[in-house]
Amino acid sequence: MNNSMPHPPGILSFYKQFLSDGNSVAWICKVAESYSVTTLARLTTSNHSPIRQASVLALGMMGDREVLEFLGPMLNDDDRKVRVLADDAVKAIEARSLPLRGRGLLERMLVQIESNHIKASISTANQIIASYPQSSEAYCRRALAHFNLGMIHEAMQDCRQCIALSPYSYMAYVGLGQCLLESDHPRQALEAFRDAIRIYPDLDTVRVQIKRLERMLREAT
Which of 21, 177, 198, 215 could form a disulfide with 189 if both were Cys (CB 3.0 to 4.6 A apart)? Predict the structure, then answer.
């Protein structure tokens, strides 16, 4: 980060208090009284990591999908805590972007996948997508369900649609990479895995997969 904006003492004070007492209601009330979403988005470019942490945390609680363009790059921040907070913030905003019924259907779908009711989960995903076609999470979860059924082409399409709706969805890139591997396209799979790491570097299993693929491709030449 190379932004030299002065440290706003308010948000740092609020953030330290929140870290001390864990009172999220008091924290977000103080921030909302003092900072607009636009200002918080600007603070994500601070060269001071606690400010980036505080602004990302606040955006995750106050923002809507419009702030994802600011939170997305924070998934690759130099500070690991910022990355984790950004990941949580993006997920929270994606969840809030759906009305209550849509969130309920997403939860039902997750339970269905975990309990191995894969065909039922696809049916639930279809309901979500029919009503809320901008739900990138529904496409991502349906991709997993399709993959589990061996429907690789359909899973790949879902991953690509998720990425089109949510370019920072690193799990969609991971899913796309797995689909490409299953389709015997290791070089394309490698690029998809690298894209996932570029977005969110804290994917240790993906790094292992990248090294394995790099070694395999070197040996094949």
Answer: 177
